[in-house]
Amino acid sequence: MTSTPTAPARLLPAPRVGGCPFSPPPAYTEAAREGSVTRAELLDGSSCWLVTGYREVRTVLSDRRFSADARRPEFPFVTPGRREIAAADPSFIRLDDPEHSRLRRMVTEDFLVKRVEALRPEIQQIVDEAIDRMIASGSPADLVTGFALPVPSLVICLLLGVPYEDRELFQALSRVIISTTAEEAEVARAQAELLDYLGGLAARKRRSPGQDILSRLAARDDLSLREIASTGLLLLVAGHETTANMTALSTVLLLRRPEQAARLADPSAVPGAVEELLRHLSIVHTGLPRLALEDVELGGTLVRAGDGVIAMLSTANRDDAVFATPGHLPADELDLDRDARRHVAFGFGVHQCLGQPLARAELQIALATLFRRLPGLRLAVPESELSFRTDAVVFGVESVPVTW
User: 88, 110, 167, 237: which sits with the fewest CB atoms below 10 Å from its CB?
Assistant: First the structure.
């Protein structure tokens, strides 16, 4: 066991340049080849551990010796903007138990598999109507603004009780909040504006409740309007940004692999195909931060109490020891027939993504319906002209011009 590798520290977040646009940043892949736990440096000059191996990532995300409480002074932040967000009003994903469990339990029932399955007809209608609008407007069309973004935005607005007509406001603010390049002051202003918006909405729902999550939270007397707003911000931002980018990126990836896209014609193959896409793309590409509370041996390396740790989901999901197929197809390859159910695209442990049943349902319905209704779907520009989003916590693509 060693405490300090001799290799130089890597600067995080690493640029996503070179190689396949759908693969992890080369620096993370190189680190994974060197070992499952390597040294890294954050933009503020502090050092941390970059954890790239599947087994080690799961340990970091499930072991109570690693804290998710972003208010701790030594907690690692990939960008200064992330620190600003945590310092203001941390959502429950940036808290430890018992605070984390208390807040999370209040919305858990809204995202249970049984509840989400009951929403499938409404999600299907939203998807079909989005495609109807695209067809009526004619090709070429932008898949992002015409389909990938409005579908999850409409769904999360429906669940939360956020007026969809306010989408331009919350979408613009969300982009700043998840940016890795925005200045701290800019992030602070965006978060404050969105919290004020959601707090005002919660106050109105206390006076005149509806059948939605914010109304139910507003009816509780053990929650402040600020706590409701903070929870609403997490659900609103995560609820549309991640699924929108997954839908767009998955479509681009499948258009370059038509033999894989054909698998979506079989309804029984769709759930497994979506799991493989989630594993392969792993769009939370900056990793998940944690702070060691005790000395922990991790992958043969001694992580000391007070050390920051970044758990890299993308490399964990490309670990050949876990995801290489019996025919020795490497984990770097896309294979919609692969058993990818053990992936960590939604995190792992008590902090794993609350909304994953909803994300799965939306992706299954959106992708299967899109390729069924538009069998001639293809890019309207060369793939080399696509502009990928590399300046945010969530990897994505700015626009996807398509025709059919």
Answer: 88
